[in-house]
């Protein structure tokens, strides 16, 4: 595929016919002036050193050099064809427990942080696999649909906290069932659900769900995180620990028996996570044993710059034009070097014999790409910035720099590069990739409205991108939830304001009650005794109800919220 990186410069070619017309008109005026002095043939004999072809040759060489210079500015490129690459990989759904018990610190820095680091290490080891992310507590929902976009996976991972799910508990069965519905329809591909939990299952059906997954050729591997001795659950923002309704400190323990039963039912392995990297190595080896199938991925070959050869031709033409004199030298008077046939031969030889050199911008981009593939984000960052110093308007360098900054967890800087690149890039496929990454960043920052807009822009440029379509559906769902929460908060605020307005009325009611009490104090002794007996009877009934309620509470099971 051939293209111009900066096609707007081609409009300068319109100047060439104007320059040609001006030159021809000037020659016409010169010939007319010569005729005024005498016969042109006689005048040519009187001026033997004047060349007929040299001025024309110098002009046409200059004009050709200008035309080629315009082409150089437009930057001709070859490559960038869309290719479908088949790679061997598996599909992995990671189900992460984010209940409050995962905040316990028997694993440093905490169970949840250790789990997130473990998932990040697993994602870094993936090459041709697809990964999805499910979070669960009392409920389970998809945090990231299955994708080969590892950058998105790590970005969504950073935003995970227990506050994502209001209903607490540990619904392992729901997470496994949701995971089974999250795989792609592709056949003959290895599938596994990696369950990361402390095993404190407050809901039923976990073992049954794992058996059902095994029947559908989905392996369930369990990573148990925590210690059997247990640890208290710290309360965020305080120095205290979570307590039950009776005021006792809650101690959460790793339920290894539950984890082992789930792994056995799911035909997988159970690994206990500690402060080493043993769990990550064990689960990576287990994934390596799974059957791998062809996973089709669309990739784009890089555009190769082709302006270098044209630039060398321009340089040679200008150098030759500068060395050519308009008058003939006596020594070379009989050498007809500048006949039209000879000129054509010279131009062809220059074209065939021209050599190309790599442009510094492209060289730095390729160095950055190599560093990026080697996970050397800092070196990639440096090389992309050097490319931008040479060409500040390069959307490729901006986009790649944004990806490198994203890997360095510099989301704000990455967003700036994506926004700038989206204003410059003209290729629809690359523009779709830019908007996709922008949507991921917005979604990670819980700006779901902007994320929805970015995903829609991506789909407008590439309607066939299923990963973007999945992310759009998820962002729309989260946006509705966010809007509902905002409406609830607004209603709460309105109720508080209404209560403030009702305070004067309540004060008037209290004053009225005080007046009534004063009137009651003035009642006769007989009426007072009657009122006292009535009040005592009411109080006895209330106490009886309280005692009954306490008996019920003692016999009931306390609800867990961890």
Summarize the model shown.
The chain has 562 residues and is an alpha/beta fold.
Fold and architecture overview:
- The chain is of the alpha/beta class and 562 residues long.
- Helix content is 57%, strand content 13%.
- The protein is built from 19 helices and 13 strands.
- It has helices at residues 15-37, 40-46, 54-74, 111-125, 150-158, 172-180, 206-215, 256-265, 278-288, 307-323, 340-352, 360-373, 377-390, 395-407, 411-424, 428-444, 448-461, 466-521, 525-555, and strands at residues 2-4, 76-79, 82-89, 91-97, 130-136, 140-147, 191-197, 218-225, 231-232, 251-252, 270-273, 293-300, 303-305.
- β7, α7 and β8 form a beta-alpha-beta unit.
Question: For the report, how would you describe the main beta sheet?
Answer: 6 strands, mixed
Q: Unreliable stretches, pLDDT < 50, 5 or more residues?
A: 335-345, 347-358, 548-559
Stated plainly, the CATH topology of the domain at 85-298 is called Rossmann fold
Proportion of residues in helical segments: 55-70%
Which overall shape is indicated by the principal axes computed on the Cα atoms?
elongated
Strand order of the largest sheet: 6-5-4-7-8-11
What's the average pLDDT? 77
How many extended strands?
A: 13
Helix- and strand-based class? Answer: alpha/beta
Give the CATH architecture of the domain at 85-298.
3-Layer(aba) Sandwich
Q: Over all CA atoms, what is the radius of gyration?
A: 39 Å
N-to-C terminal Cα separation, in Å? Answer: 58 Å
């Amino acid at each position: 595929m051939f293209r111009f990186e900066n096609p707007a410069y081609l409009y300068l070619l319109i100047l060439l016919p104007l320059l040609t017309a001006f030159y021809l008109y000037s020659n016409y005026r010169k010939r007319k002036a010569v005729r005024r002095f005498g016969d042109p043939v006689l005048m040519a004999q009187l001026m033997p050193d004047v060349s007929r072809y040299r001025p024309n040759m110098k002009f046409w060489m200059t004009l050709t050099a200008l035309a080629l210079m315009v082409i150089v500015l437009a930057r001709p490129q070859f490559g960038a064809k869309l290719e479908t690459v088949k790679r061997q990989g598996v599909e992995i759904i990671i189900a992460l427990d984010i209940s409050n018990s995962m905040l316990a610190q028997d694993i440093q820095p905490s169970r949840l942080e250790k789990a997130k680091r473990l998932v990040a290490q697993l994602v870094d080891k993936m090459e041709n696999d697809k990964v999805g992310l499910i979070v669960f507590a009392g409920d389970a929902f998809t945090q990231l649909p299955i994708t080969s976009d590892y950058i998105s996976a790590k970005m969504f991972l950073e935003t995970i906290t227990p506050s994502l799910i209001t209903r607490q508990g540990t619904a392992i069965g729901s997470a496994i069932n949701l995971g089974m519905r999250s795989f792609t329809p592709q056949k003959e591909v290895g599938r596994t659900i990696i369950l990361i939990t402390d095993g404190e299952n407050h809901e039923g059906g976990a073992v049954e769900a794992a058996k059902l997954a095994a029947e559908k050729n989905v392996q369930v591997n369990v990573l148990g995180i925590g210690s059997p001795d247990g640890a208290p659950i710290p309360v965020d923002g305080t120095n205290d620990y979570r307590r039950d309704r009776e005021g006792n400190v809650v101690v959460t323990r790793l339920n290894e028996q539950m984890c082992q039963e789930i792994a056995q039912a799911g035909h997988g392995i159970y690994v206990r996570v500690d402060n080493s990297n043993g769990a990550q190595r064990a689960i990576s080896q287990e994934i390596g044993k799974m059957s791998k199938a062809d996973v089709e991925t669309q990739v784009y070959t890089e555009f190769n710059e082709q302006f270098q050869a044209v630039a060398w031709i321009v340089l040679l033409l200008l150098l030759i034009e500068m060395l050519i004199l308009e008058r003939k030298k006596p020594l070379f008077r009989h050498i007809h070097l500048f006949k039209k046939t000879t000129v054509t031969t010279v131009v062809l030889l220059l074209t065939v014999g021209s050599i190309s050199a790599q442009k510094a911008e492209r060289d730095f981009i390729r160095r950055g790409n190599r560093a990026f593939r080697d996970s050397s984000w800092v070196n990639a960052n440096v090389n992309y910035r050097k490319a931008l110093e040479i060409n500040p308007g390069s959307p490729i360098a901006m986009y790649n720099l944004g990806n490198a900054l994203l890997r360095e967890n510099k989301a704000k800087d990455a967003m700036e590069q994506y926004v700038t690149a989206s204003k410059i890039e003209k290729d629809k496929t690359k523009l779709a990739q830019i908007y996709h990454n922008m949507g991921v960043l917005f979604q990670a920052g819980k700006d779901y409205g902007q994320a929805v807009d970015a995903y829609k822009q991506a789909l407008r440029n590439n309607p066939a991108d299923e990963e973007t379509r999945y992310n759009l559906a998820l962002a729309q769902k989260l946006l509705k939830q966010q809007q509902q929460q905002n409406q609830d908060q607004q209603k709460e605020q309105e109720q508080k304001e209404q209560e403030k307005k009702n305070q004067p009325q309540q004060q008037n009611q209290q004053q009225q009650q005080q007046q009534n009490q004063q009137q009651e104090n003035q009642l006769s002794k007989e009426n007072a005794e009657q009122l006292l007996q009535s009040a005592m009877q009411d109080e006895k009934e209330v106490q009886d109800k309280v005692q009954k309620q306490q008996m019920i509470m003692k016999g009931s099971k306390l609800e867990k919220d961890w």
